[in-house]
Amino acid sequence: VAFMLPIFFSAFILSACCLTKGNCISYDELKELKTEFAISLYRHVSETENRTNLVVSPASVAVSLELLQFGAQGNTFTELQDALGYNIHGNDFLHTLYDGVTDSSQGTVVHLACSFFVDAGVQLSPHFTARAARWANSSLQQTNFTDPNRTAAQIQEWITSNLGDGDVHGMPLMSAGSPLSQVSLVSTMYFKSMWQKKFSFMDTQMLPFTTAEGSTLKVPTMHHTAEVNYGQFQTAALEAFSMVELPYLGEKLSMFLVLPHHKRTPLSQIESHLSAKTITFWANSLKRMKMDIFLPRFSIQSLFDLKRVFSALGVRDAFDPITANFKGISEQGSLYISEAIHKAEIEVTEDGTKASGATAMVLLKRSRAPIFKADRPFTFFLRQANTGTHALRFSSRILHK
After folding, report:
1. Which DSSP helix (H) or strand (E) runs through 142?
2. Of 117, 119, 125, 160, which is the most exposed, with the fewest CB atoms less than 10 Å away?
3. 41-67 pLDDT tens trace
4. Is 117 in contact with 154 (CB distance < 8 Å)?
């Protein structure tokens, strides 16, 4: 049984771009804007997928919305830029904005990709085709929407080539309307990294985890003792919680875990205070100390259609065969988005990568170090060091297993 794990990746790339009113924003303003978009996306995804395991990447979702802006016009364009808070026209950063999003170095693998699937009978605008090909590992794929099985197979093959797993079984890939009008938007994100200090397989035990509903389950729980950055905080409503930082290899990325002090405190009470400013404040307020760390081991992936989430974000015309305006993609017919398929994966294990082999059951010696024990619902997110500032990479919560 897998953790109920609503996760959202966000590779926040820092560059200058323009707000909807046309004024330019700074490096730090864009970082904050993208963080707020990720938090908003997370809340909407949690509402629509609140009973399922899920992983969602704001980075690739943002790329999808940005890519659509190249071909959108009228109110369709307005809704897209309002959802993100900025537009991508008139900016000279096409080749550099997403440098490093797809990267494999020092034991870390980060891969983001986005693709448009358009019927082979649609004549695409050369201008749109050229711009899309230069945008954040994006691509255009021509398919045959009159053959849904073939289309599903082609999308599955594309996902497999980007994630190594492309099972789209059960995903509806056809909507009402002319096949020549349909566009499927597919985005993926995969993250895997190694800890700076690995957990020992010999110290992993089956330990109790109290779920959000109050029941107790035994889950594989990793353990180690290490010098870490740690802090204790409380919300405006005096709900206490703690935070610990676990760095990945190379110290460019760290996982920050947020744990309510009391099992009776709903995780949602802590999550409601999430914002770009509070995340920065918490992370910058941590102090170095020796801790006993207990963390559940998990692996999670998700595949779903983002149409409902986009609608909640105010993007509606793009999915309507009548009102959608994508004349910038093709003058031929009335294109609309029939699917917005998204897949993301993450895994957290003793060494930071996929684990194999049996887990040893051993008794742990008690130490005098303070304990951070994630044996109840908790939130975590990743931040990336970048020229003195930090960028949020992804965030998650674990409710139960």
Report:
1. strand 138-143
2. 160
3. 877 887 776 655 566 778 788 888 988
4. yes
